[in-house]
């Protein structure tokens, strides 16, 4: 009789379906407490008159061991530095040759030179560290003032007095589990400031939605910071009558802001590293659905798409340039944009390359 039942097409479909349902049910049961999602209404995308000319960029490091470059920094001699997923920081000399600069105890994300030519870095899995001219690692911070580990840092900038402003993307989820932030839709991140004179650290702004890049204004009266899963950049006042207050700088972005830098012309350069998850945007109003998906094992996590998109904005909040690569896929995801000489350096996270886009490209097309 059992064999006869298996010969029934409906039974042959039902049994594996029930089996899969039970497997997924077990996955969801064991991962049910990972997140506590809330209802969230995503904003609509507002286009910024993007110019599709970013693909006209030249490779800086043709052959190098760099894997998934992230942050960018340039020293006083013009050499370029970037963090690699192998845990190392590499130096690209002015002749294009790449050499190992430092071995980190984690994964360097945001990197900035201080006034003493030390390379300060947010090192995922470690904390805040700096590397001297010989590449020796010196840990500045592993914990906050309350003893909580600072292992999930992202972007940073340094004031003229040496104060380091940096972001902690989440106080709840690890770097590898940071995708759960988008499902939970709660503000688990913050911005901190480290004072090297007394070696104290304080939280200057909390309850942020996965804060990423951070950059100071030219007069250091405010800083701007990105929030990855809110697809926006905000301003936080450090001095003046508005000190302690924050406000939106740009919202309704088509992707997730990564690192932010500034140049001598009082412009901010904002890299968008991945497009919005359209499917996730559609379920943001359904916390139970989000909780079920988030409960699934790591290998079911949503795959981030690639986006090569940078914005240049002045300190008043006006967009002066909006550039993207919608023609090719050679740049991959851009995690950092840094003004350099006659152009902008780009960290191609998924292309394994550092690129340079030149300002003269604008004259060719416009």
Order of helices and strands: HHEEEEEEEEEEEHEEEEEEEEHHEEEEEH
- Major beta sheet, strand line-up: 1-24-23-22
C-alpha end-to-end distance: 77 Å
SSE class: mainly beta
**CATH-defined topology:** Neuraminidase
The residue fraction in helices comes out at 10-25%
- What's the gyration radius in Å? 22 Å
CATH homologous superfamily assignment:
TolB, C-terminal domain
Count of discrete domains = 1
The stretches of 5 or more residues where confidence is low (pLDDT under 50) are: none
Q: How many runs of DSSP E, i.e. beta strands?
A: 24
- By oligomeric state, this entry counts as single chain
Tell me, rounded to a whole number, the average pLDDT: 91
Number of helices: 6
Would you kindly provide a written description of the structure presented here, covering whatever features stand out?
It is globular, with a radius of gyration of 22 Å. The model has no long low-confidence stretch (mean pLDDT 91). The chain has a single domain, classed as Neuraminidase (6 Propeller), CATH 2.120.10.30. The protein contains 6 helices and 24 strands. Strand 20 and strand 21 form a beta hairpin. The protein has helices at residues 2-6, 9-30, 180-184, 278-283, 287-295, 360-365; strands at 57-59, 72-74, 80-83, 88-92, 98-103, 107-113, 119-124, 127-131, 137-141, 153-158, 164-168, 189-195, 200-208, 211-216, 222-227, 232-237, 246-250, 255-262, 267-275, 309-314, 319-324, 334-340, 343-348, 353-358. The protein starts with a helix and ends with a helix. With 366 residues, it is mainly beta. Belongs to the strictosidine synthase family. Pfam families: SSL_N, Str_synth. Keywords: Glycoprotein, Membrane, Phosphoprotein, Transmembrane, Transmembrane helix.
């Amino acid at each position: 009789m059992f064999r006869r039942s298996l010969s029934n097409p409906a039974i042959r479909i039902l049994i594996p379906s029930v089996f899969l349902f039970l497997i997924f049910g077990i996955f969801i049961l064991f991962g049910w407490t990972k997140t506590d999602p809330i209802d969230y209404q995503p904003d609509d995308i507002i286009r910024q008159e993007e110019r599709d000319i970013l693909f006209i960029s030249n490779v800086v490091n043709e052959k190098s061991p760099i894997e998934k470059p992230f942050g960018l920094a340039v020293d006083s001699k013009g050499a370029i530095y970037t963090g690699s997923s192998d845990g190392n920081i590499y130096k690209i000399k002015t002749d294009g040759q790449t050499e190992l600069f430092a071995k980190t105890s984690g994964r360097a994300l945001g990197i900035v030179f201080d006034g003493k030519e030390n390379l300060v870095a947010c090192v995922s899995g470690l904390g805040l560290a700096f590397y001297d001219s010989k590449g020796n690692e010196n840990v500045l911070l592993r914990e906050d003032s309350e003893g909580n580990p600072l292992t999930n840092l992202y972007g940073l900038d340094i004031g003229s007095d040496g104060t380091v402003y940096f972001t902690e993307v989440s106080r709840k989820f690890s770097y590898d589990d940071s995708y759960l932030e988008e499902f939970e839709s709660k503000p688990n991140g913050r911005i901190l400031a480290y004072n090297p004179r007394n070696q104290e650290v304080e939280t200057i702004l909390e309850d942020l939605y996965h804060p990423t890049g951070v950059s100071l204004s030219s007069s250091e009266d405010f800083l701007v910071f990105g929030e990855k899963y809110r697809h926006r950049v905000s301003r936080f006042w450090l001095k003046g009558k508005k000190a302690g207050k924050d406000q939106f700088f740009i919202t309704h972005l088509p992707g997730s802001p990564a690192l932010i830098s500034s140049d001598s012309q009082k412009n901010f350069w904002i890299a968008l590293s991945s497009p919005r998850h359209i499917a996730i945007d559609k379920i943001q109003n359904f916390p139970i659905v989000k909780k079920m998906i988030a409960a699934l094992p790591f290998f079911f996590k949503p795959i981030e798409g690639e986006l090569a998109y940078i914005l240049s904005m002045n300190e008043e909040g006006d967009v002066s340039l909006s550039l993207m690569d919608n023609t090719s896929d050679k740049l991959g995801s851009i995690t950092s944009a840094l003004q350099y000489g006659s152009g902008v350096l780009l960290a191609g996270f998924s292309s394994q390359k550092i690129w340079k886009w030149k300002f003269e490209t604008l004259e060719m097309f416009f």
